[in-house]
Write a structure and sequence with these properties.
alpha/beta; Arc Repressor Mutant, subunit A; Rossmann fold; 6-stranded mixed sheet; 9 helices; PRTase-like; WH-like_DNA-bd_sf; PuR_N
Length: 279
């Protein structure tokens, strides 16, 4: 690349870093790319770092030493995330979204790229201090959320199937009890899809009793894998369920009340925002 003036260099450097989250980029790479001294590159990065902090875009980590460089960590403050989720919860609280069984219609929201990007960034922020090998979800509407989260963490997505596909090769299948319907169902995962010993982040779009997530956790045991975190977009506690089938998880929204007869629904920010809400 030819030598650029500082404003253009900063713009190009910012785009490069945002497109490669959680990737260590040596300062020598930028110095060679822009035909500039390392001291100038360091000054540019200081400007970008300050802007990221002001605009709540994320964190720019600088690692010193011969093997050092700079790394962009997508991160949004909990207060900023809370404000985003308040708007989403207001949309989810519309009476016409009520579906039979106490579920919510969310396909339109989960189909909006901007909203998906925001929610994925919130999940990535919540788990940014941990190292994961992949994001896992089951083949439902949670797939876009999983990809949005994985994009900000810069890791692969693993999709658990309801039934084994011939294109997946040999697979491991288990039976699990659906927490809401109490029915025995099957899920499977190709043996090549996940390496043994992986640290996995589970992302799901909707959780009522936790049966599906519990099933994924049991499936991961067959791969000697570890569940490092669980993120749920919307949780809705089942009144007929004495306790959830999982314990440690974060939710971004909480479906607290559904009155099908009177067409009333209440959705508020989930347990990730408990410190802000003071509950």
């Amino acid at each position: 690349m030819k030598k650029l003036k500082r404003p253009y260099r900063i713009i190009d450097m910012t785009q490069y870093l945002i497109a490669r989250p959680h990737t260590l980029v040596p300062l020598t790479y930028f110095a060679d790319r822009y035909q500039s001294a390392k001291s100038s590159i360091s000054e540019d990065l200081a400007i970008i770092k300050e802007l990221f902090e002001i605009e709540d875009v994320g964190e720019l980590l600088t690692l010193a030493g011969a093997a050092g460089g700079v790394k962009y960590i997508p991160r949004i403050s909990r207060q900023g995330a809370f404000q985003m989720m308040e708007d989403i919860c207001a949309e989810l609280s519309q009476p016409e979204r009520i579906l039979p069984g106490g579920y919510l219609y969310m396909s339109d929201i989960l189909g909006q790229p901007r909203t998906l990007n925001q929610v994925g960034k919130i999940f990535a922020s919540a788990f940014s201090d941990q190292h994961f090998d992949c994001v896992m979800t089951v083949e439902t509407k949670g797939i876009p959320l999983a990809y949005a989260t994985a994009t900000h963490l810069n890791i692969p997505v693993v999709i658990v199937r309801r039934d084994n596909k011939v294109t997946e090769g040999s697979a491991v299948s288990i039976n699990y009890v659906s927490g809401s319907s109490k029915r025995i169902q099957t899920m499977s995962l190709g043996r090549r899809a996940l390496q043994e010993g992986s640290n996995v982040l589970i992302i799901d779009d909707f959780m009522k009793a936790g049966g599906t997530i519990r099933g994924m956790m049991d499936l991961l045991q067959e791969f000697n894998a570890h569940v490092g975190g669980v993120g749920v977009f919307v949780e809705a506690k089942d009144p007929d369920q004495r306790e959830l089938l999982i314990e440690d998880y974060i939710s971004l929204a909480d479906l607290t009340m559904v009155d099908v007869k009177n067409k009333a629904v209440t959705v508020k920010p989930g347990n990730y925002f408990t410190p802000i809400q003071g509950e």
